[in-house]
Design brief:
Elements: E1 19-24, E2 32-37, H1 50-58, H2 67-80, H3 87-103
Amino acid sequence: MTDRQTELLPCPFCGGTEIEIRRMPSQWQHPEYAAQCGECLTINGTSLGMDAAAQEWNTRATPDYVKPLVDALKKIEAIGYELEKPNHIARNEIAKITDEALSKLPEDLR
């Protein structure tokens, strides 16, 4: 859809950037729209316009500083599956990943 002016922020759940505004089925006379992530299929509530749907989506978006934390958790989870590593090596890797992610947080959130 092309009459939307508002830029869409990434998905607050998966970080996906394939966000689309869709016209939804409606029992009302006016068309209703919702934003949906093309990666995890999360969808927000309906709105009476494309810009309104985009603005509603953006109020739910994850701040930029959260992404490094999510990435760190994924790396830590992956280490948990590498059972052949001695525990002290895994602990050191987890500590390094955690410190790196926390260093990317804004000062007031550390």
